[in-house]
Design a protein that fits this description.
Length: 249
């Protein structure tokens, strides 16, 4: 499938480092700017996930120009579009099941893990969206805050007495930020792909149906992950916003 518009025309005003951040994606900024808090969260993340991620890296293939040349080109294209100069290492792994990808920040090293089925089964533009999404999380420094959200989820499950307190004080606003961080990452993926038909098709391919109900809309307010219909709706708004800005030029 072809792209909607050439990148240099549709987004030519932001080629160096596009400002794609969702307007409210600033919830964790004050927290992460505190050096003590940031260092503590990184230590927790390293202890909890560091060894597991390192083990996956050891049995995975690091992307290079030689082993996956087309994927290498697509990945570097996405980094160029987003203005990322320090390119995170990307590992293709069979440890991730299905079509999947995740980003991690372990021991001050930012990496992306991409499942082998994703490499084999996805078309180039679908991969660009998937890679751009993970690069967006890395570029906007979402990863440590995502670790905090995961810790709170685990604590809610295992510490019954604290769960209501955590939910009232931290969980709800943090979940709201988490949903917004997904909108931001989706925008990064869109910049790398620029084709809503491809993105909608990818969601359908992954079984991410965009169905909703009044109940699911209400329940979304307390969940970490936004509805897929909301994700597509926000992306469509972002596309139209950029088209309107382009028309003004």
């Amino acid at each position: 499938r072809s792209t909607l518009f050439p990148y240099t025309t549709l987004f030519r005003s932001s080629v160096e480092k596009p400002n794609y951040v969702y307007a409210e994606d600033n919830y964790m900024e004050a927290v992460l700017n505190n050096p003590v808090t940031s260092r503590t969260l990184r230590t927790i993340a390293n202890r909890l996930y560091g060894k597991q991620v390192e083990e996956i890296m050891l049995i995975s293939s690091q992307l290079s120009k030689d082993n996956y040349p087309q994927l290498w080109e697509s990945y570097n294209y996405c980094c160029s579009v987003l203005g990322i100069e320090r390119i995170p290492a990307l590992y293709i792994t069979s440890r991730l099941k299905g079509i999947n990808a995740l980003s991690a920040d372990i021991n001050k090293e930012q990496i992306i893990l991409l499942s082998l089925p994703a490499v084999v089964m996805l078309e180039e533009m679908e991969l660009r969206f998937l890679l751009g999404h993970e690069l967006g999380h890395i570029q906007q420094e979402h990863l440590i805050a995502h670790t905090v959200q995961g810790l709170l989820e685990d604590l809610n499950k295992h510490v019954e007495l604290l769960a209501p307190v955590i939910t009232d004080i931290l969980d709800v606003p943090l979940n709201r930020w988490y949903r917004i961080s997904e909108f931001t990452a989706d925008r990064a993926g869109f910049l790398c792909c620029q084709d809503m038909d491809v993105i909608v098709g990818l969601f359908q391919r992954l079984g991410l149906e965009a169905s909703e109900s009044s109940f699911s809309r209400l329940a979304e307010l307390s969940h970490a992950h936004p509805l897929n219909s909301t994700r597509l709706e926000k992306l469509q708004e972002y596309k139209m916003q950029n088209l309107a800005e382009y028309d003004k030029e």
